[in-house]
Structure formats: structure tokens, C-alpha cells
Design goal:
The protein is an alpha/beta fold. The chain is 32% helix and 26% strand. The strands form three sheets. The chain has a five-stranded antiparallel beta sheet with strand order 3-2-1-5-4. It has a five-stranded parallel beta sheet with strand order 12-11-10-13-14, with helices on both faces. Strands 7-6-9-8 form a four-stranded antiparallel beta sheet. The two termini are 20 Å apart.
Length: 326
């Protein structure tokens, strides 16, 4: 989203116009969900996606027409099995796309959007649409959104009527701290980044704590597992994944992490290793409740064996946690 926003801003600053195609709602087996967007530029290039296939082609054509006429509108694509022949799709469901023409008048909001995407705080994109035209295009922070808690939630919300109201989470507070950059860590970081988690990789080995090994991580830290708070400050919005080579470093990390409140803590390891670590935590005075909160064995039980499979199982468990707590 940050890349798309930067590209849109750069084009508008050069005097160009851009059409932003946003999925406001989807249902059934539609290929993409609400909040998915694609920018269409005056030179014909596109950035982002609204699902691929014929819908994306038609959306790009609609956007090109908006660039010519300036007439914004909402279009619903019906992908129900008995109506797909007209657009050549095979998945069932419905997709509602809004075409918004962006010019220099929208730059102040786009600048605020860019800032929000670089800040570790909850924020939302808000649209008020009357007769197919945006009356209000805004970015709300948590304080501004508090007066309409039913609209500003953890999911995209479309309130039909006249005018149409639409709000979607722009940025979720919190990040994932992955402690351990071995094979599973290297597989996990890109998976998490691609499903909307902001990732920091922390390792005590200089040869692994290298940004070149983790291009999908926002930050890579070379640090001491026995003193993580010298470089890390955990919040109650953060996720922690522990996957170091030995139980001693796992214990050192858990003993520190479990004294803070976080959204998720997971630790990889065999049942024997986990049992030994839990006993050490009890001896250190960590409560049974905190020990029981650790996801260990980590990941959903899908029979994962390879690092890539384990990474998927961990990411799935974290997605499940995020959906339940937001």
C-alpha cells in the first residue's frame, strides 16, 4: 500500500491524474476482498490489483474512461455461476468497485495517508460517496474514529444508502518480532509480510542478522538474546515468534517476553524442549497463565514438516489470532 501511495503521489505531483479502483465489498468466492485496490495512470500503466482476470481488465477499461470523462462511479461485478459467461470468470460471488479520480486537490489527504502508513498506530481510510462522487475522502486516526466505532472497526465496512459510507483499516498498530533467522525464520518473514504483518528479525549471529537475507523485513537487528530490551520495546499490539537453535536461548527470550503483555507469543520446539523450558520459567516466577498463553508447539496442526510448510502453519495461526483479537 505504501508503494502504491508513493507512486500515486509522484504522478499527481507531476500534474497527472490517477484513478484509484477500490473494492468496497465482496461476497462469495470473489477473488479479492474489500480494501483491495488498483491505481490506473494516464499512461495506461497499473499498480496493484482488484483480483486479476476479466474483472481487472474491465476495471482498467472503466478507469481509462474515468480519466477521459472525469465521471466517477460505482460498478458491481456479478460472478455468480449462472452469470459468469458475460465476463468469462468461473468463481461465484460479487465484487463492488469504486472508481475515484485523484488530482492535486487530493494531495493533502494522500500525504496524510503516506504518513499513516509509516506510523505504528491504528488508522482508517474513509469515503463518503453521494451519487457516485466522493464528498469526503479522509484518513482518520484512533481518536477521530472513536465517535463512530460501528464504522471504524478491524474490517472494511460498507454502509449502503445515500450517501454510501465506507471505512477500512489503513494501518494496524503492532509488529511481529521473529527471534531466530534460521531456515524457518527465513521462510516465515516473507509469508508474514505478504499477509500484512510488519516484521522485525532479531538474531544474535552476525552472519544471519543481515538485511540482505531478509528483504521483506522492515528491520533486522543484531542483538543479545539475554537482553532484548536494549534494542526492542514490546507493546500489547505486538506478536513474538521464538525459533532459536537451543532451549537456553528460548528460555532467555520467553523469560523476558512473558513479563510484558503482547498479542501473541509462539515458540518452536519439540515437546521435550518445551516441557524443560516451561519448568525453568516456573522456577523464574513466571505465572502459569503466562506460560499457558504461549503457542507451543507453534502453528496450526496441518502436518507441516519442511521450513516452508512450518512457516505457513505459523502464519495461519497468527492470522487466526489477529482475526479473533481485532
Amino acid at each position: 500500500m505504501l508503494k502504491l501511495t508513493n507512486e500515486v503521489i509522484a504522478a499527481i505531483e507531476k500534474g497527472e491524474r490517477v484513478v484509484l479502483c477500490t473494492i468496497l465489498a465482496s461476497s462469495g468466492s470473489s477473488p479479492r476482498g474489500a480494501g483491495t485496490r488498483m491505481a490506473v495512470f494516464e499512461d495506461g500503466r497499473t499498480l496493484g490489483t482488484v483480483g486479476g482476470g476479466k474483472v481487472e481488465l474491465l476495471a482498467a477499461q472503466d478507469a481509462a474512461e474515468v480519466l477521459k470523462t472525469g465521471n466517477t462511479h460505482i460498478r458491481a461485478f456479478c460472478l455468480a455461476p449462472d452469470q459468469v459467461a458475460s465476463i468469462g470468470m468461473i468463481c461465484g460471488g460479487n465484487v463492488t468497485v469504486y472508481y475515484q479520480l485523484l488530482t492535486q486537490a487530493e494531495l493533502p489527504v494522500l500525504y496524510r495517508m503516506r504518513g499513516a502508513l509509516q506510523t505504528d498506530a491504528n488508522s482508517w481510510l474513509y469515503l463518503k460517496i453521494a451519487d457516485g462522487v466522493v464528498e469526503q475522502f479522509a484518513i482518520y486516526d484512533e481518536a477521530e474514529a472513536a465517535h463512530q466505532s460501528e464504522l471504524f472497526t478491524s474490517r472494511a465496512i460498507l454502509k449502503k444508502g445515500e450517501p454510501v459510507l465506507y471505512a477500512e483499516p489503513l494501518m494496524r498498530a503492532g509488529r511481529v518480532y521473529v527471534f531466530g533467522g534460521g531456515h524457518v525464520g527465513q521462510a516465515l518473514v516473507p509469508v508474514l509480510a505478504n499477509v500484512g504483518f510488519r516484521v522485525t528479525l532479531f538474531d544474535n549471529r552476525r552472519e544471519l542478522a543481515d538485511q540482505a537475507h531478509f528483504p521483506y523485513a522492515e528491520q533486522v537487528i543484531l542483538g543479545d538474546y539475554n537482553d532484548i530490551y536494549a534494542q526492542v520495546k514490546l507493546t500489547d499490539n505486538d506478536y513474538v515468534v521464538i525459533m532459536t537453535p537451543g532451549h537456553q536461548s528460548d528460555y532467555a527470550l520467553l523469560e523476558q517476553v512473558l513479563r510484558s503483555k503482547t498479542r501473541y507469543v509462539g515458540c518452536i520446539g519439540s515437546r521435550h524442549k518445551i516441557a524443560r523450558t516451561q519448568q525453568l520459567l516456573r522456577e523464574a516466577g513466571i505465572s502459569e497463565e503466562a506460560i499457558a498463553s504461549v503457542h507451543s508447539p507453534i502453528g496450526l496442526p496441518i502436518g507441516a514438516e519442511t521450513p516452508a510448510e512450518i512457516a505457513i502453519s505459523i502464519a495461519a495461526e497468527m492470522i487466526q489470532c489477529r482475526a479473533k483479537t481485532e
